[in-house]
Write a structure and sequence with these properties.
By secondary structure, this protein is α/β, with parallel strands linked by helices. The protein has a domain at about 80-110 and about 210-385: Rossmann fold, CATH 3.40.50.1100. About 35% of the residues lie in helices and about 15% in strands. The strands form three sheets. A six-stranded mixed beta sheet has the order 4-5-13-10-11-12, sandwiched between helices. A four-stranded parallel beta sheet has the order 8-7-6-9, sandwiched between helices. Strands 2-1-3 form a three-stranded antiparallel beta sheet, with no helix packed on it. Helix 6 links the parallel strand 7 (about 150-160) and strand 8. Helix 4 (about 110-125) packs parallel to helix 5 (about 135-150), helix 5 (about 135-150) packs parallel to helix 6 and helix 9 crosses helix 10 (about 240-255). It is globular. The N and C termini lie far apart (about 45 Å).
Length: about 375
């Protein structure tokens, strides 16, 4: 619609937007969608949003689909931003605490946002067979959206992926292969076979459009907070697309004049059994090395090597944020804490943000009365093996 080109996030090489693209052919890093924001701003205004549909496609001018007939949607996005007063009362200091509940998306996770945009674009650009490695929720989302679009989905999952995710994919028409290994091993299998099989690789950040769906979380936060961003955002980080997407959204909104240059402190939360971003952040490194022997019950956090590592780390540093690792025992206990206080059965990944917040309070890195947002990225019901 208003897309001008694709740009490499690392070397800034430009690419044509109207053909299927994966990574930058010069440096192998992710491509980002760039827009004519002046043109987009002619119709996308704060006032115009008041009468639009309550889903992520309300931000149509800064989403990549050109022909509305190609949009593949179940009504994803515009999830609740819930004041977590009772949970806040369990903390040592007074905070304005909120939970952005992404479990209320179709397929019960934030992955629906990215797959809506990515599958819509794959359909528009002529792909017929899509492939993805996934530790769970991305697989379920791709299976559903591909089926709705009439496209084939080929999904590769670690054999210990939560059973609910596997069944979900099988029952929505995907071709599912279980691999004895990690998500990186699944990704290697996709890479090895995709050309011969005619698959378009829709892996995290290996195509430019999943991030566009995820960035709408940033637009929604700003709109739900009446265009005043929170002070701190705690985000459970595997591949980190949501965090990167929100950071991109903030820049776009500043270009529109909707927000100023002040940014939330972005906090990447991982399990200590798989914490490549945490390790790299505290070592002062721009890229995160692969985390050996990755293991955590929070399957969405079990990403030993994120291709967008430098984008995550850049956002943490530029925002004055940090990266925190918590123990699996802590994040599992936090599921019940959040559920008891607020009635939400959250995913272990989202629950990890609560012990991380407590650590920040102990370190005096969160001030009283600050507005803090925890992202719950999925539904706890998909992780019954954890309990």
């Amino acid at each position: 619609m208003n897309v001008t080109h694709l740009e490499c996030a690392n070397c800034h090489a430009n690419y044509e937007a109207r053909t299927l693209q994966n990574l930058c052919i010069k440096c192998g890093k992710p491509l980002l969608v760039r827009y004519d924001l002046t043109k987009a701003g002619e119709t996308l205004t704060k006032d115009s949003l008041k009468n639009r549909e309550d889903n992520l496609w309300r931000y149509r001018e800064v989403l990549p689909v050109e022909n509305a007939e190609n949009i593949v949607s179940f009504g994803e996005g515009w999830t609740p931003l819930l004041k977590a007063q009772r949970l806040a009362e369990t903390l040592p200091i007074k905070l304005n605490l909120f939970i952005k509940d992404e479990s209320q998306n179709p397929t019960q996770s934030f992955k629906a946002r990215g797959m809506s945009a990515a599958v819509s674009m794959a359909k528009e650009l002529g792909a017929t067979k899509l492939a993805v490695p996934s530790a769970g929720n991305a697989a379920g989302a791709l299976a559903a959206y591909a089926s709705r679009a009439g496209l084939e989905a080929h999904i590769f999952m670690p054999s210990d992926t939560p059973r609910a995710n596997v069944v979900e994919c099988q029952q929505t028409g995907a071709f599912v292969t279980l691999i004895d290994g990690l998500i990186t091993d699944c990704g290697a299998e996709v890479a090895k076979r995709k050309e011969a099989e005619g698959w378009f690789d829709i892996s995290t950040l290996k195509e430019p459009y999943r991030i566009e769906g995820k960035k709408t979380m940033g637009y929604e936060l700003a709109e739900q907070f009446d265009w005043n961003l929170p002070d701190v955002i705690l985000y459970p980080t595997g591949g980190g697309t949501g965090l990167i997407g929100m950071w991109k959204a903030f820049d776009e909104m500043e270009a529109f004049g909707w927000i100023d240059s002040k940014r939330p402190r972005m906090v990447s939360v991982q399990s200590d059994g798989c914490a490549p971003i945490v390790r790299a952040f505290h070592a002062g490194e721009r890229f995160a090395g692969e985390f050996e022997n990755a293991a955590t019950v929070a399957s969405g956090l079990r990403v030993p090597k994120a291709i967008g590592d430098f984008l995550i780390l850049d956002a943490l540093h530029k925002s004055g944020g940090t990266a925190i690792a918590v123990r699996d025992e802590q994040l599992i206990l936090a599921v019940k804490e959040i559920g008891t206080a607020e009635g939400l059965f959250v995913a272990p990944e989202g629950a990890a943000c609560l012990p991380a917040l407590r650590m920040m309070i102990e370190q005096h890195s969160v001030k009283e009365t600050e507005r803090v947002v925890i992202f719950n990225t999925g539904a706890g019901v998909k992780y019954l093996e954890c309990f």
